């Protein structure tokens, strides 16, 4: 280490590198934000009612669940793992919430929230333990638990459907109420995003997640408890999927075992579009949230633009390809610039 | 390492044999040739796509777009048939379409150097979306019986569908290529270490590109079979099948990190997955339990070998006196 400090480049250049790297993040998120603004602008010009109070609320509500899931997924993907089981965890937690209210209609909302999150955490612990202790790839483990959790959900539900009438009115109100024009549910998403963003940026353990994603072996050698951190990331993702399940129940009221079926691919797509590299180490939860916002916004904008809704999935697919392509081009350019600077300095 | 791999194949085959024997005794109707005919029809599309998928995963890549390629092929088939194109002409068009779709995957992965997981999640959405654009939520079902009936025709004197035989022949060819030719060795080399493979003269990018083309072409072929078997061209045909294929390949002992796996194991994995599913179904076990079984099998298939290896390592550490020089 001491020899490294002696040979280190002058501080000005180092700061330049850091600035370059930071600019890369900003450029990524700015690009998505720009796409988002452009989409809203075009759609609003085409049909001004796209942004009236009611549809603004619908847009925010629509994005809420995807944003919560995308934040959790981003944390996991940054560590070079992936959580494909989030859709199943959401379904399980949403159904559990319905069952809870069915059994005890007087359950306080806070308790329902905690129960949903707790169930999600439990699922996350299973995922995390299998990955960290048995040292097996997250892709396979969560592909397995995607089936297992959904299967448990189905056999528990056994064809039963829970209707909005079975939910207490206070809980349903949470799903529709607004605070200063912002839906209460969206506030959950904002809170989750800010807490996760602050943690990932300002805490040592948060930064270590990036280190793990960049190079797991190096992270392990430098004393980072890799297994423990990955375990925690999976648990957080599970907990957030559990929270998303409760929010889902509050928003839709009608629940069966199929809730959130297949949403995992949308979540991964949101994260990838949001500039989180699928092989870890870079990106941010803010980018992932923007990606989620963009994806759900496309879903609402297409019908307004009178584009056949059949195009939606194709557009999302093209967007993912464009996003990862752009990401690649940006990374390559920044890397080339850094190399050039270093060469000139030497 | 190689020895452990060999034992995994054997294990899957043994489990498959146990499932078959137990089901034959315990499940009424399982040991009939008619049931096996149906079972093989279920096996065909997954086994077909699992063949090239095995090669792709062994090189350390993945293709999640296969089911969407199947769906888009089916949708295009329906649209072409509606506009009066004869089936003998539709088949080559579909295969050509598959080649193009695979070339797009391959170009993004090898040409632009993007991770295949992200690329094929993108094309999974894109191709499925295009399938809906082509056919909407319509279903085209008026294919002639001379084709749809022929596709599920059994070999004379048996209940084995003739297509199963075609898949078996393909499996043998894939097995020989993978395990007994320089191409196969190159694939393993790529999965173990891309750079080392490059330095040893293997054109990694070109090989991977053609693997993606091959995978999508076979997925299109599976789409043709699927459409004929159910006599229905729909945009959502085969939705979610990619997870079953990947599950079967991993269950068969192929490492998700590449470089390890055998085709025999994968075929046993496919058979195990489908046999177990159909046997339980026949035994009136509800569908949700099947989902749990599939997931648990998949988890065991990755946790099992790792846990065994760790246990073995711990045991070895406990008696260092046997080989004092082996430390470090």
- Average pLDDT number of chain A: 85
CATH architecture of chain A: Orthogonal Bundle
Largest pleated sheet of chain A: 2 strands, antiparallel
The number of helical elements of chain B comes to 13
Show the largest interface: A-B, 47 and 47 residues
CATH fold category name of chain A: ABC transporter involved in vitamin B12 uptake, BtuC
Shape of chain A: globular
Q: What's the main sheet of chain B like? A: 2 strands, antiparallel
Low-pLDDT stretches of chain A: 1-16
Pfam family, one (chain A): BPD_transp_2
Main location (chain A): membrane
Function (chain A): Part of the ABC transporter complex LsrABCD involved in autoinducer 2 (AI-2) import. Probably responsible for the translocation of the substrate across the membrane.
Subunit structure (chain A): The complex is composed of two ATP-binding proteins (LsrA), two transmembrane proteins (LsrC and LsrD) and a solute-binding protein (LsrB).
Structure description:
The complex is a heterodimer of chains A (346) and B (328). Chain A is mainly α and 346 residues long. Chain A has one domain: ABC transporter involved in vitamin B12 uptake, BtuC. Helix content of chain A is 77%, strand content 1%. Chain A contains 14 helices and 2 strands; from the N terminus they run αααααααββααααααα. In chain A, strands 1-2 form a two-stranded antiparallel ribbon. In chain A, a hairpin with a 2-residue loop joins β1 and β2. In chain A, α3 packs parallel to α8, α3 runs antiparallel to α13 and α4 crosses α11. The longest helix of chain A is centred in the first third of the chain and has 36 residues. The N terminus of chain A is likely disordered. Chain B is an all-alpha fold. Chain B is 75% helix and 1% strand. Chain B is built from 13 helices and 2 strands. At the A-B interface, α6, α12 and α14 of A face α5, α11 and α13 of B.
